[in-house]
Design goal:
This protein is mostly helical and 225 residues long. It is 81% helix and 0% strand. α4 crosses α5.
Length: 225
């Protein structure tokens, strides 16, 4: 989207477009770009169809771990797990729909789709390489595999990946963390919506952490860990 916007609108407007947010990029900027092309109606239809399919498929992939968690850890049937997750998702999605122009989508996209990816990626890289141990992890990766990963990736996964991710987090903390946390670039009329979005995100994180804790205690009592 950004390269296309740069090509059509030039360098003067690209910063404004890039900072307008996820919703504006997908539903405002791209239709304007597609409107300048031949067969604009066809390309616009294709764009929104692909956007819809991407949203549906990514939603399924994001919800599947939660469904599997309830099935495996709490012995819930698949139908019951899907019903509970669907009901909770339906309730939580309402603010996104009704307050779509208030910064809710962009706040969710940043914390859940950008910041959390780097944080969890860093944690996973450290757990995989240093806590579990790169030698055991390497052996686990190749169990049942017909092809072997080049050994250079053993070094990359253990040293380069965590260092790179920690550097990204460190630079962000120094350069952008304070303005983001203090909502300096959020319009005054949107700050309450953004604040409540953060409260909900923290609540979801706490709830999921408690569920993992309960599952751990359950397995510990059963002697499985």
């Amino acid at each position: 989207v950004i390269p296309a916007a740069f090509a059509f609108f030039g360098p003067e407007k690209i910063v404004e477009i890039a900072t307008a947010g996820t919703f504006a990029l997908g539903f405002v900027t791209m239709p304007q770009i597609l409107g300048e092309l031949p067969l604009s109606a066809f390309f616009a239809f294709s764009w929104f169809l692909l956007l819809f399919l991407a949203g549906v498929t990514s939603s399924i992939s994001m919800l599947q771990p939660a469904i599997a968690f309830f099935e495996d850890e709490f012995n819930a049937s698949r139908k019951k797990a899907i019903s509970v997750i669907a009901a909770v998702s339906f309730i939580l999605i309402q603010p996104v729909i009704f307050f779509i122009g208030k910064g809710v989508v962009d706040e969710l996209d940043f914390w859940a789709g950008t910041f959390a990816l780097v944080v969890f990626g860093t944690v996973e890289a450290i757990l995989f390489s240093w806590i579990f141990g790169i030698d055991k992890a390497w052996e686990e990766v190749h169990k049942g595999a017909q092809m072997r990963i080049p050994r250079i990736y053993k070094f990359i996964i253990k040293y380069i990946t965590p260092t790179f991710l920690i550097a990204i987090l460190g630079i962000w903390l120094v350069q952008d963390a304070f303005p983001v946390v203090m909502m300096e670039n959020i319009p005054e009329e949107n700050k309450n919506y953004v604040l409540w979005t953060r409260v909900v995100l923290v609540g979801i994180f706490v709830f999921l952490s408690l569920m993992v804790k309960l599952a751990w205690v359950k397995r510990k009592k059963a002697g499985e860990v």
